[in-house]
Amino acid sequence: MQGVVRMFDPQTGEGVLVSDTDRSEHVLAAGALEGSLFRLLRQGQRVNFDVDGDGRAVRVRIGSEADMGLPPHVQL
To answer: Looking at residue 39, which CATH number applies to its domain?
Structure first.
């Protein structure tokens, strides 16, 4: 799924992403950035992410990560 960062607090790691498809908001799950090339997100940044069974954003990554040949994320 693709979307945009609505907010991200670097101190707590809490954030909200908005889906491009239906504009639904997804709270950033704990550890969603683990294994990602980037450790911080900025408001308005475009990202790719998956959604878990509870509707939380997980496996947040930047589209260019796939282009760089990085290994896939490990699901916790």
So the answer is: 2.40.50.140
Q: Return d(Cα 24, Cα 34) in angstroms, integer.
A: 23
Could you read off the pLDDT tens digit of each residue along the chain, which spans 76 residues? Answer: 999 999 999 888 899 999 999 999 999 998 898 877 767 899 999 999 999 999 999 999 876 544 444 455 544 3
C-alpha span between 60 and 68 (Å, rounded): 16
Question: What is the pTM (predicted TM-score) of this model?
Answer: 0.78
- Tell me how far the alpha carbon of residue 8 is from its chain's centroid: 10
73 assigned to some structural domain: no
Q: The tokens 């639904």 sit on which residue?
A: 24
- Greatest pairwise CA separation for the chain in angstroms: 30
Continuous H helices in the chain? 64-67
Phi, psi angles (nearest 5°) of residue 37: -65, -30
